[in-house]
Amino acid sequence: MDVVDRARAQWAQQRPDVDTTAMAVVARVLRIAALVGKLQDAGLARHGLTTGEFEVLAALRRADRPLRASEVGTLTSSPGATVTKRLDRLDASGLVERRTHERDRRGVLVTLSDEGRAVIDEVLPEHAARERALLGDLDDDERDRLAGLLARVLAVAEDGVPD
Questions:
Q1: Closest C-alpha among 24, 22, 19, 21 to residue 1
Q2: What is the pLDDT of residue 108?
Q3: HEC states along the chain?
Q4: Cα 50–54–56 angle (5° rounding)?
Q5: pTM for this one?
Q6: Is the pLDDT of residue 105 over 70?
């Protein structure tokens, strides 16, 4: 019995009229997210990065082309002010470079520096290995099924669940 089962058992005693079956999944997803976040934060901190900065570097590496700051925001699901703060820090660390867009002088393009590319290429395999280790008890079919089920739940969440 884990912490979620214990909470559900307590709710069953206190509020037997409330269906807590979804909690068996959602509470575990939230708990896993929090624990994985701590684990990933610790691994990234060894490289002097935050999770948000890693996400920026990863977005730039995946795109493999200069991006506008607004594109970085879209790819990382981060507000503009947050992206600016992260880019400021990454720029000061020499991991990204900013330059004015040739055709639109108001726009700024962001690209990985050579050092930034080297950092993300070093950090990504470690990051992926931590994630693989978390799923180590699942076989390939179980991982695929879980990924598919979570994708369906994510699609509903992204569409917005009514209150």
A1: 24
A2: 83
A3: CCHHHHHHHHHHHHCCCCCCCCHHHHHHHHHHHHHHHHHHHHHHHCCCCCHHHHHHHHHHHHHCCCEEHHHHHHHHCCCHHHHHHHHHHHHHCCCEEEEECCCCCCCEEEEECHHHHHHHHHHHHHHHHHHHHHCCCCCHHHHHHHHHHHHHHHHHHHHCCCC
A4: 120
A5: 0.84
A6: no
Q: What is the largest CA-CA distance in the chain?
A: 66
- Distance from C-alpha of 13 to C-alpha of 6, rounded to nearest angstrom: 11
The two structure tokens encoding residue 62: 């995946």
Distance (Å, rounded) from C-alpha 9 to C-alpha 130?
A: 32
Residue 85, Cβ density class (10 Å: 0-12 exposed, 13-18 middle, ≥19 buried): middle
Alpha-carbon span 32 to 146, nearest angstrom: 14
Length of the chain: 163
Residues 6+ apart with CB under 8 A from 9: 1
Average pLDDT over residues 1-20: 96
Q: How far apart are CA 151 and CA 163, in angstroms?
A: 21
User: Rounded CA gap, 47 and 16, in Å?
Assistant: 48
Give residue-wise pLDDT tens across range 49-70.
999 999 999 999 999 999 999 9
